[in-house]
């Protein structure tokens, strides 16, 4: 028995098609949807990711401005630029790309992104509003997890979901989205004792730790659904998930692939959020 | 065997004494710490609670303004008054008392409380900042849970805590505070399947459901620590916890009493937050 493959490609294509339609309608009505990606790093995989967003935005009819402040930008200058973009009526979505220069904190700086334009849910305000059930954008990766589950009609109400990882980018926001979907949610992390026992009690395991192959068959109950959020670069230039797929797929009921699972849905949601922020 | 009693009285007295000292120092330096409690209800138990805060504030040397807008106040007028108090330099802490008039939402209105003055952590921004590890006030009840555990030297790192209840006032913020303290956290709620099995897997159970006696011995592991956040009014004018103490105390290792557990610490923390907000 091999676990069912929970692909994100079909869902991603559907979100992109809908986004392109809404972008075209907005543009026809005189509003050109525009996303600003603020970069302050010379990191190569970041540059690759930003180019892939810009390309996807272009295909969807969204203008993407890459605002490169250089790898030595000060926190103050980054904050000032975010505030400027927040006030700029032509800009609808703002992303602050990581990594950031030493001394700069994503959460502190993201507070300068107007929450209405915070299409990757980086401003702590967005998390607070999500938790309160108020309108806000979730981090695209966290939302992608829930959207993939829903797309594959995996019931969440009353089900026990273990989230491995407690970051502000995935673990914490996905916990709130899952609670909003009426799941019982356990958040595990590096200090969790007997991790395998805790995650094996769950119907669904979300792996968001950023360590290749960390989640193995020992961590999942027979038949469980496993969502792999990991995008760890491999030596040969590829991507490895947080889940050891060879080990897990013989035991789990279903598993998202890496690449081709949560990743493409994340990018599609960033664009979808931008169009919504533009009023589409 | 009967569970150890985790009293909040000693801790509450210590926080109050420290708060009174800081309030006196602030007043001597020319800053009179001031708390505004905004009320828009004719509810009797709310009025009782507000009087008890005002009395405790007075004892601590904190001026407490009860701003009664009446039970028919519109959401707009409540929001306007909160914004006015947020801008008033003489006011250091602001609480919006519940219940609110029909059509008014605590989370939406609390967005108008400046987070620096949000001494009961009602603004969703405060929750987001707590989750991000940025300075913010937690809801006093949620913080009281963690302070009681710490006061009784109950280790949290790596321990599994089940929180029953997912409100913005207790369940969600206490989950973040417990994660910050390196606990593994499970949030359960009304839709959780097999609640007793889930909570019985935890080292610590936090009951915050608002239903008298809901948590019984079936819900707790032998020797577990149980924190009772419930303050359900009884017919004879007393208070009943969410935990059925008679049932649980024969099985749990330790249990907070109601009254005298989390409650007095909550009030003390509200005052402590106000003095901190005033710079003390």
From TrEMBL, chains A, B:
UniProtKB keywords: Amino-acid biosynthesis, Histidine biosynthesis, Hydrolase, Methionine biosynthesis, Multifunctional enzyme, NADP, One-carbon metabolism, Oxidoreductase, Purine biosynthesis
Protein residues bound to NADP(+): 165-167, 231
Organism domain of life: Bacteria
Reactions catalysed according to its record: (6R)-5,10-methenyltetrahydrofolate + H2O = (6R)-10-formyltetrahydrofolate + H(+); (6R)-5,10-methylene-5,6,7,8-tetrahydrofolate + NADP(+) = (6R)-5,10-methenyltetrahydrofolate + NADPH
Keyword Amino-acid biosynthesis among UniProt keywords: yes
EC number of the protein: 1.5.1.5, 3.5.4.9
Keyword Translocase among UniProt keywords: no
InterPro entries recorded: Aminoacid_DH-like_N_sf (IPR046346), NAD(P)-bd_dom_sf (IPR036291), THF_DH/CycHdrlase (IPR000672), THF_DH/CycHdrlase_cat_dom (IPR020630), THF_DH/CycHdrlase_NAD-bd_dom (IPR020631)
Xref: Pfam families: THF_DHG_CYH, THF_DHG_CYH_C
SUPFAM superfamilies per UniProt: Aminoacid dehydrogenase-like, N-terminal domain, NAD(P)-binding Rossmann-fold domains
Pathway per the UniProt entry: One-carbon metabolism; tetrahydrofolate interconversion
Residue ranges constituting the Tetrahydrofolate dehydrogenase/cyclohydrolase catalytic domain according to the UniProt record: 6-120
Tetrahydrofolate dehydrogenase/cyclohydrolase NAD(P)-binding domain segment(s): 139-278
Assembly, per entry: Homodimer.
Protein role: Catalyzes the oxidation of 5,10-methylenetetrahydrofolate to 5,10-methenyltetrahydrofolate and then the hydrolysis of 5,10-methenyltetrahydrofolate to 10-formyltetrahydrofolate.
Family, similarity comment: Belongs to the tetrahydrofolate dehydrogenase/cyclohydrolase family.
Protein name: Bifunctional protein FolD
Species whose genome carries this gene: Streptomyces coffeae
